[in-house]
């Protein structure tokens, strides 16, 4: 019998109530994440065999789940070959017998948006982790369809800091178009400069250079991650600094809103044990949504 759980807390309930022998576990979940589930199973001396399936491809993530007792780690997007490898390697053939009537579930587009973004952000986080030699806390994407007039409200909600710096970068290709916006907390400059080995005083030139480096890593890798999943080419424009040391409420005033509505995907970025906070917002034009949905349906098929 195949059973699904929406989050880690639900998964633990299922494990307690039903006879489960193998679990494929995501790491990035609300309420209780995969690390929390593995920790609980370890505390309970559970014999449940766990295969982690995650978009968080940081080396440290792999190390941590293995220490918490996971059998193996499969990177998203998942391939049939990799699933078959794990099944045969750990002798799960008899336990994972295909059901006569496979479970069917209707595609939830917002869940699909989160999944695609999560995989793309995993690639960006892995790159940033290597540059900083640190662990990047993977966010759960916050997805909303909003009017452009509501975008400032969304930025205020996403950022709980008083002052921020903002950079935007347009992207287009394969029927998709939009802008990516990096919002970086002013209080994060010092720690980020140290981790990126910036030398000298943190003056205007150094701040802009740091912002450009972060933009290239986070936006570049995230957009490439989306393009790779859809097998399309996405061209990225030159980054534009919207402003520095400004109140969050002023971000849009300094920008140039081109559309009436947008699919807004917000990713909160944090570095473990560091005073570094940023948000990466992906804003897709309303004309891109039908194509985005078509691509997602094709990938999910």
Give a nutshell description of this structure.
The chain has 301 residues and is α+β, with helices and mostly antiparallel strands. The chain is built from nine helices and eleven strands.
Corresponding CATH architecture of the largest domain: 3-Layer(aba) Sandwich
What's the count of strands?
Answer: 11
Q: Quote the CATH topology of the largest domain.
A: Chemotaxis protein chec
Spans where pLDDT lies below 50 across 5 or more residues: none
Q: What is the top-level CATH class of the largest domain?
A: Alpha Beta
Keywords:
three-stranded parallel beta sheet, Rossmann fold, 2 domains, alpha+beta, 9 helices, 301 residues, Chemotaxis protein chec, eight-stranded antiparallel beta sheet
Would you kindly provide a written description of the structure presented here, covering whatever features stand out?
The chain folds into two domains: 82 residues, Rossmann fold (3-Layer(aba) Sandwich); 192 residues, CheC-like (Chemotaxis protein chec, 3-Layer(aba) Sandwich), CATH 3.40.1550.10. It contains nine helices and eleven strands. With 301 residues, it is α+β, with helices and mostly antiparallel strands. The strands form two sheets. Strands 4, 5, 6, 7, 8, 9, 10 and 11 form an eight-stranded antiparallel beta sheet that branches. The two termini are 22 Å apart. Helix 5 crosses helix 8.
């Amino acid at each position: 019998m195949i059973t699904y759980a929406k989050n880690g807390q639900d998964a633990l309930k299922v494990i307690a109530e039903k006879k489960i022998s193998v679990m494929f576990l995501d790491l990035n979940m609300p309420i209780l994440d995969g690390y929390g589930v593995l920790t609980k199973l370890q505390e309970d001396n559970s014999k449940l065999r766990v295969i982690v399936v995650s978009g968080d491809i940081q080396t440290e993530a792999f190390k941590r789940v293995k220490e918490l007792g996971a059998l193996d780690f499969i990177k998203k997007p998942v391939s049939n070959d990799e699933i078959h490898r794990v099944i045969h390697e750990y002798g799960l053939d008899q336990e994972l017998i295909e059901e006569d009537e496979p479970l069917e579930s209707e595609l939830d587009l917002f869940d699909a948006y989160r999944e695609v973004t999560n995989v793309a952000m995993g690639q960006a986080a892995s790159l940033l982790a290597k540059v900083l030699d640190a662990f990047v806390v993977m966010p759960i994407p916050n997805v909303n369809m909003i009017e452009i007039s509501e975008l400032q409200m969304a930025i205020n909600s996403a950022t709980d800091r008083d002052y921020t710096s903002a950079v935007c970068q347009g992207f287009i290709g394969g029927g998709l178009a939009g802008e990516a916006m990096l919002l970086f907390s002013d209080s994060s400059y010092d720690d980020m400069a140290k981790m990126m080995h910036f030398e000298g005083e943190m003056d205007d030139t150094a701040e802009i250079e740091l912002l450009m480096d972060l933009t290239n890593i986070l936006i570049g890798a995230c957009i490439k991650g989306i393009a790779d999943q859809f097998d399309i080419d996405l061209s990225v424009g030159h980054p534009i600094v919207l402003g520095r040391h400004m109140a969050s409420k002023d971000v849009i005033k300094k920008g140039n809103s081109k559309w009436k509505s947008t699919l807004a995907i917000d990713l909160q970025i944090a570095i473990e044990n560091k005073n570094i906070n940023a948000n990466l917002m992906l804003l897709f034009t309303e004309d891109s949504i039908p194509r985005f949905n078509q691509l997602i349906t094709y990938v999910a098929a």
